[in-house]
């Protein structure tokens, strides 16, 4: 994983509540055995019409939002299936952060492990972001802050350990492996064995 | 006065902490059972290979193939034709990976193959007090046995394969207390749909649910699994029910359960798991079980739910609500009983167990699926298929004009070729009515097996109670 310290980008707004991971990446694209190349299928059934043509009304197809790295989404983003293909697809498409008032648990964990930043803000800030698409935003991981175009800073919650992993670009498997001794001792000291 | 009582969740959690959490680091939590299937594991095995790692505990890992596997009836498993090259490759990879890493896999030739959340309990691998994970959000199902069971992503599948552990922050606890006696025609599915409707699809976010109360205690294990299965649809990663005699009777004699003196020792340990009387929950919600009706969804998430006897509600201008109704081709005020049905699906890890099939068959016996309606019945496992056939349920379904299939996820997520066509309406016993879940443009109404069967007969979304009362 590449270190993530700061994301500066204009925002693209998809203000729909309860966007589930089946929308982010439909199940029929989960037959892949790799993590790569999922971006082309991101939000497939919203981006494309039934005949495969581009759906001009969908915000991610709007050329004025091309290259936006920050997605402002509705409440409870990423609910439903645990498929890690969802953050893989968002990242492969070029998005680096998702801002919402609430982000579903499993999706949030998966996102952090891949360097996609989940940012939860208060309803007032969220309302402002929804009303101002294409806003120039800066998200800093070091002090967990979101800076709005007028310079106002909002802090977002992030787990200390997850932040450390993002900043250093380290993955959590290495940390677990370093605890090998503790794991073996645990296996030996348990009063019952599974 | 300080409360020292501990919840079921606290007890299971604390028994599995390898390294406690601190402000800077999450807890290292030991995993007793890792269930794997073909869709969410290939990238994890690739990682193991890249790093030259082995699977730490093959003996605590159990694999099946369910998501992309065909369910068309065959005489011999060798005749199964997998739909799509990618799916075939994925299934092939699963077989290769399990062979290379020495893992037990219930593949096409196993009489124990089935949906991952059906076979864990069926084999007795799911037990009270265990920590159970799977790269699948409906792992919450196993909480019905008093296990702490939750879905994980593929990166975490790699962590568990390599270390048998996960890094976790301790979640909060939510008690959902459901008292009262369920009325005739009201099942576990209706109970959980009504609960999600009450607390919302994000009502459980950040929490582990414990379902409590007399309505929960009186459910059999199949019903308890239906309830815990849908915890994730309320945003909770896990849902648990304290183990009791119903649990123990279900498990006794199952292949992976202890026997003899070890069984007695396990029973003693399991009986201590229930939450203490003075246990503290971070939140508590109450639901009146006796006031519940058969429930169905009308929108595009499981919280958009009403009694089958009601009409589609109105939420004014809320854009997300309007988007959902638009997709479903529903109007506020439309009677649920006026919704025409194209497809009925009885199956999925929510409602594909023997008692689910018995309920659907009981209502269909001697009746016909309405003309123009396609009904698909997909048992949760090959074992259940056999039990159902021994009880003659397959004949009831076939005589009614329904299709009787091999086990698998099937039309729950439409990865294996079993899909609902665009614009068609499906009454489904599965757990997700998301846009496109059962096929591109498919419209899904979630319901119990009884409601699904009644809807198949009428060709419209139907209240099962009239059939049950007539039979009394
Ligand atoms: S039946 Fe449906 S919900 Fe259950 S594991 Fe299979 S795809 Fe997932």
List keywords for this structure.
heterodimer; A: 194 residues; alpha/beta; Aconitase, domain 4; 7 strands; B: alpha/beta; five-stranded parallel sheet; binds iron/sulfur cluster
Structural overview:
- The complex is a heterodimer of chains A (194) and B (472).
- Chain A has 194 residues and is α/β, with parallel strands linked by helices.
- Chain A contains 8 helices and 7 strands, in the order βααβαβαβαβββααα.
- Chain A has one domain: Aconitase, domain 4 (Alpha-Beta Barrel), CATH 3.20.19.
- Chain A has a 7-stranded mixed β-sheet with strand order 4-3-2-1-5-6-7.
- The radius of gyration of chain A is 18 Å and the shape is globular.
- Chain B is of the alpha/beta class and 472 residues long.
- Chain B contains 16 helices and 19 strands.
- In chain B, helix 2 packs across helix 5.
- Chains A and B meet through helix 4, helix 6, helix 7 and helix 8 of A and helix 2, helix 3, helix 5, helix 10 and helix 11 of B.
- The site of iron/sulfur cluster has 14 residues of chain B, from helix 4.
How would you characterize the largest beta sheet of chain B? 5 strands, parallel
Number of helical elements of chain B? 16
**What does the average pLDDT of chain B come to?**
95
- Portion in beta strands of chain A: 15-25%
Strand order, largest beta sheet of chain B: 5-4-3-6-7
Using a beta-carbon cutoff below 8 angstroms, give the protein chain pair with the largest interface and the number of residues from each chain: A-B, 53 and 73 residues
């Amino acid at each position: 994983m590449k270190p993530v310290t700061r994301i500066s980008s204009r925002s693209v707004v998809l203000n729909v509540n309860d966007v589930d991971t089946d929308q982010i990446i439909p199940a029929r694209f989960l037959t892949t055995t790799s993590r790569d190349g999922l971006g082309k299928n991101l939000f497939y059934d919203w981006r494309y019409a039934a005949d495969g043509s581009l759906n001009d009304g969908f915000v991610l197809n709007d050329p004025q939002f091309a290259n936006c790295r920050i997605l402002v989404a509705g409440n409870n983003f990423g609910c439903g299936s645990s498929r890690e293909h969802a953050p893989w697809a968002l990242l492969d498409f070029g998005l680096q952060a998702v801002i919402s008032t609430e982000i579903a648990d499993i999706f949030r964990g998966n996102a952090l492990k891949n360097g996609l930043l989940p940012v939860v803000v208060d309803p007032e800030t969220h309302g402002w972001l929804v009303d101002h698409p294409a806003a120039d935003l800066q998200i800093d991981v070091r002090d967990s802050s979101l800076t709005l175009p007028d310079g106002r800073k909002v802090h977002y919650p992030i787990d200390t350990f997850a932040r450390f992993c993002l900043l250093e670009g380290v993955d959590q498997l290495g940390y677990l492996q370093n605890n090998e001794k503790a794991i073996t001792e645990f296996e030996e000291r348990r009063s019952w064995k599974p | 006065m300080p409360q020292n009582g501990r919840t079921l969740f606290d007890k299971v959690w604390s028994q599995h902490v390898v390294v406690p959490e601190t402000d800077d680091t999450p807890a290292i939590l030991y995993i007793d059972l890792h269930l794997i299937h073909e869709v969410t594991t290939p990238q994890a095995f690739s990682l193991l290979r890249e790093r030259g790692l082995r699977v730490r505990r093959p003996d605590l890992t159990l694999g099946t193939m369910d998501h992309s596997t065909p369910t068309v009836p065959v005489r011999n498993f060798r005749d199964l034709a997998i739909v799509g090259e990618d799916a075939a490759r994925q299934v092939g990879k699963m077989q290769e990976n399990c062979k290379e890493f020495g893992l037990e896999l219930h593949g096409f030739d196993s009489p124990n193959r089935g949906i991952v959340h059906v076979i864990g309990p069926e084999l007795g691998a799911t037990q009270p007090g265990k920590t159970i994970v799977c790269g699948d959000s409906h792992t919450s199902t196993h909480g019905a046995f008093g296990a702490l069971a939750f879905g994980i992503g593929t990166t975490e599948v790699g962590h568990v394969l390599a270390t048998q552990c996960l890094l976790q922050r301790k979640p909060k606890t939510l008690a959902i207390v459901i008292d009262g006696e369920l009325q005739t025609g009201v099942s576990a599915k209706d109970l959980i749909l009504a609960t999600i409707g009450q607390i919302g699809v994000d009502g459980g976010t950040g929490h582990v649910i414990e379902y409590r109360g007399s309505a929960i205690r009186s459910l059999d294990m199949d019903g308890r699994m239906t309830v815990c299965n849908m915890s994730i649809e309320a945003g909770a990663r896990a849902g648990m029910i304290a183990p009791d005699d119903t649990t123990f009777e279900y498990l006794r004699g199952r292949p992976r359960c202890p026997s003899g003196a070890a069984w007695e020792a396990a029973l003693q340990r399991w009986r201590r798991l229930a939450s203490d009387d003075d246990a503290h929950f971070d939140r508590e919600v109450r639901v009146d079980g006796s006031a519940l009706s058969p429930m169905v969804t009308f929108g595009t998430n499981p919280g958009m739910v009403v009694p089958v006897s009601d009409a589609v509600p109105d939420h004014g201008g809320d854009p997300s609500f309007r988007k959902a109704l638009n997709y479903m081709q529903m109007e506020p005020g439309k009677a649920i009983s006026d919704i025409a049905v194209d497809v009925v699906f009885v199956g999925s890890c929510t409602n594909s167990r023997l008692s689910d099939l018995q309920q659907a068959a009981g209502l269909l016996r001697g009746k016909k699926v309405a003309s123009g309606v396609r009904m698909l019945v997909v048992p949760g496992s090959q074992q259940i298929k056999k039990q159902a056939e021994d009880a003659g349920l397959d004949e009831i379904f076939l005589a009614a004009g329904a299709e009787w299939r091999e086990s698998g996820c099937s039309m729950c997520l439409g990865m294996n070729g079993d899909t609902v066509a665009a614009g068609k309406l499906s009454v489904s016993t599965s757990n997700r009515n998301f846009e496109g879940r059962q096929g591109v443009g498919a419209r899904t109404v979630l319901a119990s097996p009884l409601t699904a069967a009644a809807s198949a007969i009428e060709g419209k979304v139907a209240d099962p109670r009239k059939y049950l009362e007539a039979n009394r």
